[in-house]
Amino acid sequence: MKKDGAYAVIFDMDGVIVDSEPVYRLWNQELYRQLKISVPEEIKLQLIGGSAKRKWQLIKEHCGLSQTVEELIQYQYESFQGKECCFKDIQFPAVRPLIESLKSNGVRIALASSSDRERINRVITDCGLVHRFDVVVSKEEFADSKPDPEIFLQTAKRLGQAPAQCIVIEDSTNGLLAATRAGMKKVGVKHPSIPMDLSLADVTIDSLEQLSPTILGEMV
């Protein structure tokens, strides 16, 4: 394995830390019913891992909605405000052991998510991970989120690592595309029920249990 500090690991949140995509799908289905629209499965898959802005741009274009993108984002925000989810209950069990193993080996780690800061804070608080990440980055800090690479490039800068020395763990096509554009190594995590295109990943796994500091260190 490379010596301590020779590489850093950047985690996505939804679909990597917590199994939240099925929950969000249910919330979105209710939202689509309220808007009286039908969103095809191929469009839904394109939305995973991306920003709310990109989501509503695609849906507005496909469904011909009269509202502005900004109005739709606000409508979603208000609709989701009352939704409750205990993220600890849907945390992937292999997350904490991997994080602790990386930390004990001197590997700096970050969380870079297309979610807003409020939701990120809820997730890491529920899951007991508040002080485990060296850097936490949210979508609000950037004009564009994934698949734009800026979120990963800025995360690498804050970690003090060159992009080529960073390994991104992602479950979405948008996230892997962003990491590719950033010049980073990529691990694609399969979801048991949501078929994502992970072909851009350097390594594809079924669970974080398959990763270790040694395996990750050999990637860079």
TrEMBL record:
Pfam families: Hydrolase
Annotated PANTHER family: 2-DEOXYGLUCOSE-6-PHOSPHATE PHOSPHATASE 2 (PTHR18901), PSEUDOURIDINE-5'-PHOSPHATASE (PTHR18901:SF38)
SUPFAM superfamilies the UniProt entry points to: HAD-like
Superkingdom: Bacteria
Protein name as catalogued: HAD family phosphatase
